[in-house]
Write a structure and sequence with these properties.
With about 400 residues, the chain is an alpha+beta fold. The chain is built from eleven helices and 23 strands. The chain has two domains: about 120 residues, Alpha-Beta Plaits (2-Layer Sandwich); about 260 residues, Metallo-beta-lactamase, Chain A (4-Layer Sandwich). It has a seven-stranded mixed sheet with strand order 8-9-10-11-12-13-14. A seven-stranded mixed sheet has the order 16-15-17-18-19-22-23, with no helix packed on it. Pfam families: Fer4_13, Lactamase_B.
Amino acid sequence: MFVIFGTGLRRCTNRFTASGVVGQLPHKAERSACRQRSARTLARLEQRRRENVPGDVYVTSGCIDCDTCRWMAPSIFDRVGSQSAVVHQPETDAERVRTLQAAAACPVGTIRTESPPPAGLSKQAREAFPELIATSGDERSGTRVYHLGYHSAKSFGATSYLVLPDGDRWKDAAFMTDSPRYFRPLADQIEQLLKREGRQLRYIFLTHVDDVADHEKWAERFQVRRIMHADDIDDADERSTLASIEIPLTGSGPWLLTPESVTKWPAGAASPAPDRHGVKIIHVPGHTRGCIAAIVDNYVAFTGDHIAYSETRNAVTGFPQVCWFDWSLVIESTAKLAEEAFVWIMPGHGRRYHYASVEAMRQGLTESIALMDSDLYWAMVPYRARGRVRSS
């Protein structure tokens, strides 16, 4: 048995999956549970799941069902029972590299091989991050979004991104959205990419309290300021590392983010921004009290855990079982997002989604709002998140 890439081994009692959540704990107790090492899980990690097809690559019983490997390599991994499993053994070098990339991204290191993978393929997989996943132009122009990989157990495997906005104002700057696991080779690769582009990392944009992971280490490495809503800083548990956040946002916004500063969105300015270029921060409370989203160049919305594509529902949606604050506000905040302009949704948990046009996005989110306000969804909302009267 070979552990392909090392990782801190942690397990959260609450399973945030593409289809929902299994099990519930009170909010702060849940967060604390996510941060505790589990000896039980460490023992279970040695067990190959029976649901894997025969062959070299397999998933262990320590899988936390975060969905990362399934959307990264859908031809290799799928959900069988309540966890991931290998449903097709990689046959080509391209499939092997993609499998190794998924192993690198796995937050708890539960993707294993019976024999050591070829060194060349392992190196290729490690060096694949940051991975370009969306661009409004090409590999060297337009708004570009990179998947950072190396998901963290501290955030239950949330996805993080490196963002290179378009336009003259951002031509020498970039920012990170949420935090991956701190891994020095990844930091070096980010640094090399930014050097090639003639840019500097200016901010770490933290969408909400649950997906901050190793934000302190990243901020120290790149000497950048972190942005987060003050409501989530205030609501964090006693072990929080958020007291040192340099830019705590207050109020309901929206805000304009530039490489130099974060300011209130100009009074009377059109929304969405008519000239396309720029980064707008929107307060989208509901999942937590201080959730925020960033809309970049009228192209992509970074939504944290507010909304994402659900394969089970075949729709962009919020996740009622993990609504920590107020489900009515999730619905209202989605309506607020629908007034903006973008074609990509890039979430923390759940899957990203691309709309054919801004008009298609608005129509899609209108349908999503109706779904989220249905009896089906309200039946799944925890009592703690029913603080407001449901709309009729």
